[in-house]
Design goal:
- With 207 residues, the protein is an alpha+beta fold.
- It folds into two domains: 108 residues, no CATH class; 89 residues, Immunoglobulin-like, CATH 2.60.40.
- The strands form three sheets. A four-stranded antiparallel beta sheet has the order 1-7-3-4, covered by helices on one side. A three-stranded antiparallel beta sheet has the order 2-6-5, with no helix packed on it.
- Strand 5 and strand 6 form a beta hairpin.
- It starts with a helix and ends in a 5-residue tail after the last helix.
Length: 207
């Protein structure tokens, strides 16, 4: 569904009238709220790194793809040597300074325990942040034109945009969306999610 259509339907359903830019601001807040459950899997590759003393680093803000990441999942490394083969690196605890693998802080991904080579390339799997929409009034445009999540869940946005009067509908829709994304992307965590959801509902909390 087009974002413009989502806004039009929300305006009709809520019987509220706002400038398109204000509706887009609400849409972007919804994107931020849904990012953690959307699990939009993305891969970026060919990131060149310089290896010094068997270590290398990647500044997340300097990579156009990684800067959109919500959660880093896997890191693969290929040494720039004859016959160099790609290997999936193991995620390390922050205190581990010796094992071969990767770790990160909010600004960088660090690789360690590499070989004697001086360069390599990196591939990263990550869940991306849901993209904010940029609205231009004249000529009117919405970029991107549609949300990234599957279309069958686009009604979530309408519930969110309609405001607190439909907060319960939004929370229910979000929980269903989260359940389906976990079932598809991380089925091994489904039991923990259901237990946490049940505990939240028993205590009167919400998602």
């Amino acid at each position: 569904m087009l974002i413009s259509k989502i806004i039009s339907m929300a305006e009709t359903q809520s019987d509220e009238s706002y400038d398109a830019a204000d509706w887009v601001d609400r849409y972007n807040l919804c994107q931020d709220d849904l990012t953690s459950v959307a699990k939009i899997l993305t891969t970026t590759s060919g990131i060149a790194v310089t290896v010094t003393a068997k270590a290398a680093s990647i500044t997340i803000a300097n990579d156009a793809d990684l800067i959109t990441s919500h959660r880093i999942l896997n890191v693969y490394y290929t040494p720039t040597i004859t016959g160099g083969a790609e290997v999936q690196l193991r995620r390390l605890k922050p205190a581990d300074k010796y094992s071969k693998g990767w770790k990160m802080d909010k600004d960088n991904i660090y690789l360690q325990g590499l070989g004697a080579e001086t360069a390599g390339t990196v591939k990263v799997d990550f869940y991306k942040k849901l993209a904010h929409c940029v609205y231009v009034a004249s000529p009117e445009s919405y970029t991107p034109t549609t949300p990234e999540i599957p279309e069958e869940y686009h009604g979530i946005y309408i519930s969110y945009l309609c405001g607190k009067s439909q907060q319960g509908e939004y929370n229910a829709a979000k929980q269903l969306f989260a359940l389906e994304r976990i079932r598809e992307m991380e089925p091994w965590t489904l039991k923990d999610y259901l237990q946490a959801l049940q505990a939240s509902q028993s205590s009167g909390g919400g998602s």
